[in-house]
Known about the structure:
Layout: H1 7-28, H2 35-39, H3 49-74, H4 81-103, H5 107-129, H6 133-137, H7 140-159
Helix pairs in contact: 1-3, 1-4, 4-5, 5-7
Amino acid sequence: MIHKRPAAVTLILILLVTVATAALGALVSGGDSDPWYAALNKAPLNPPGAVFGIVWPILYTLMALGAVLVRMKAGSFAAASSALGLYFTQLAVNLSWSWLFFGFHSPLLAMIALVILWFLILAMIRSFAKHSWAAAGLQIPYLVWVTFAGYLNGSILLLNQ
């Protein structure tokens, strides 16, 4: 007999894992108050630190809403396991970026993680679209921001050799 997880449990799991990812990333993301980061040469279009504090909560909210929509449209976690597996995988890689960049001061490894993340987000959008176009569309700002983050991370690599 296959145990079917109640929808509420899956929805709470999605929200908890998303919030935990954001919180664990924030532990090391000191932004402008981090002396190492403050000393780096940055891209000409690098936004003020406060922008990151506004953008990321919005993106995490959109991500979670998309994942919840997918779960609801699919009818069960099992029916959406591929899409939600990509969701949780990209969250892990997203978190790894914060730790690689801010925690380990490795813009190169962070850039590698960012490229992997970009492709995972693209795959997630395609997988979400199989269940809900709205859920897929909610991920577009995330993909755009991660593309911009690639420019920022890449600029730091080039400007700080």
